[in-house]
Amino acid sequence: MRLVDADVADKWMRQNNAFIDAAILKAIPTIDAVPVVRCRECAYATRPGDNIIYCDNFERDMMPGDYCSVGEQKEGTGLEPGEIIELKARMEREK
Questions:
Q1: What is the spatial distance between Cα 90 and Cα 57, in angstroms, rounded to a whole number?
Q2: b/e per residue, 8-28, with b = 16+ CB within 10 A?
Q3: Where are the alpha helices (DSSP H) in 1-95?
Q4: How far apart are CA 10 and CA 32, in angstroms?
Q5: Which residues contact 10 (CB under 8 A, 6 or more apart)?
Q6: pLDDT in tens, 6-61
Q7: Which of 15, 21, 39, 43 gives 62 a disulfide partner, CB atoms 3.0 to 4.6 angstroms apart?
Q8: Structure pTM?
């Protein structure tokens, strides 16, 4: 299963004159999801090495792909989740 931001999909369709019945779009099952910060992108992660990251918040080793409820994005680590969605949509249009 892939998560889709229906609001972004609706906006993209309107901007690109792609039409889908609004009832169909609203009928697509959705879930409540929140963006997470992976340990490799977290401000609390220090001393990275050999696929292990030390978490200053929990004072323990973590895997880079782990995440938790208190992670905070490091400054300058890349794109925000909404920007990633927009970038993927732009790439699909350019195919």
A1: 37
A2: ebeebeeeeeeeeeeeeeeee
A3: 6-15, 22-27, 81-94
A4: 18
A5: 25
A6: 777 778 777 887 777 777 777 777 777 777 889 888 889 887 677 888 999 999 99
A7: 39
A8: 0.50
Q: List Cβ neighbours of 48 (8 Å cut-off, separation of 6 or more).
A: 40, 54, 64
Q: How many H-runs (helices) and E-runs (strands) does the chain carry?
A: 3, 3
For the chain, state the CA radius of gyration: 18
Amino acid at 86: E
Both structure tokens of 10:
């609706």
Other Cβ atoms within 10 Å of 55 Cβ, number: 19
Residue 43: count other Cβ atoms within 10 Å of its Cβ: 14
Instruction: Please name the amino acid found at residue 28.
Output: I
CA distances from 67 to 23, 25, 58, 72, 92 (A): 36, 31, 12, 10, 29
